[in-house]
Write a structure and sequence with these properties.
two-stranded parallel sheet; 55% helix
Length: 194
């Protein structure tokens, strides 16, 4: 799965950096983007886009009243739309397989956005396709994996409904194999003597 490059993202980042550093004032920036009533490509994307961004035209003097607020809101909405487009493409890719294995849930903790995406993935596959989840954490501990997510209970509920939970007790194979290798190397160093 590849995503197409967005040509104006570097301009957007430079723009945000200039605003943050104070090298450019928002009102001046808005005037520059709206020069001669023909907006630049970046201005068309931020102010007049087709993908659901906030559409706000700035008239003479209005930018002084709004300051950076209008620009920041437009950029945030645009950035969220880009994020959601990528997330939905990712989601479509992982919803499709007949069997999906999600390995090592609980190895890291995740943000609310990750939890929301995981919930959406589980929900779209729920009672439609098979999903195998491996984890070293009990479901009761998943609030620690997804600390601020409101969807954890619903996600676990969907995973558990009609599920076969297999609990494996004991040492991991990796630890067991590492221990056996260490014992073999120890024997080799001692010349095969026990």
């Amino acid at each position: 799965m590849t995503s197409r490059p967005v040509p104006w993202v570097s301009d957007l980042l430079r723009l945000a950096g200039s605003l943050k550093l104070g090298t450019v004032q928002a009102a001046g920036l808005i005037r520059t983007l709206q020069t001669k009533d023909r907006p630049t490509k970046l201005a068309r994307v931020v102010f007049h886009g087709k993908g659901g961004e906030l559409r706000q035209r700035y008239r003479e003097g209005q930018e002084d009243q709004l300051g950076s607020l209008g620009l920041v809101v437009n950029v945030i909405v645009l950035w969220n739309r880009i994020y959601m487009d990528v997330a939905l493409n990712w989601l479509r890719h992982y919803v499709a397989p007949t069997l999906l294995v999600i390995d090592e849930v609980g190895y890291l903790s995740y943000s609310d956005r990750h939890a929301d995406l995981m919930f959406e993935l589980i929900s779209r596959r729920y009672e439609q396709k098979s999903t195998v989840v491996t984890t070293n954490r009990a479901f009761a501990d998943w609030r620690e994996i997804f600390p601020n997510a409101a969807c954890v209970v619903s996600m676990v509920d969907r995973l558990m409904h009609n599920a076969e939970v297999v609990s494996i007790e004991g040492d991991s194979y990796r630890a067991k194999e590492a221990k056996e290798r260490a014992e073999r190397k120890g024997k080799q160093r001692r010349g095969g003597k026990s």
